[in-house]
Amino acid sequence: MMLKEADTEDVISMVDSAETAGVIDKLHAQLIRAKAYGRTESGSLQARAICEDLLQGPHLSPAEEADVLEYLCYLCRIRTDDLGEVEYGLRFVEVCDAIGSPLRSVPVQADMGSSLVRIGRAEEGLLKIEDAIRILDGEKSFFYLDAGIKTRKSLIRTYIDLKRYLDIVPVAQEIISHLEDYAANPEAYADDSPNLPGDHNRPGYVDFYTAQALAFISYAYGAEGMKKEALEYNARFEKTRYSKTFGGRKMISSAWPLLGEYDRMLSFYDELQRRWGADTLHADYAVMLENRALAVKSKGRYREALDYMQRYSNLTDKLYDNQNRALVQDYVAKYQYQEQKMALEREKVAARRSRSIALGASTGALVCLILLGIILQYVILVRRKNKALVSQISENVLLQREKEDASALNGNPELSSLSDAQLFEYLRYEIVTNRLYADSRLDRQFLMDRYHLSKERIGSAFSHGSPYQSLAAFLNVVRLKNAAKMLSSSPEMSISDVASACGFSSGSLFARNFKQYFALTPTEFRQNPSSFKDMVK
Question: Does domain 413-536 have CATH number 1.10.10.60?
Answer without folding.
Answer: yes
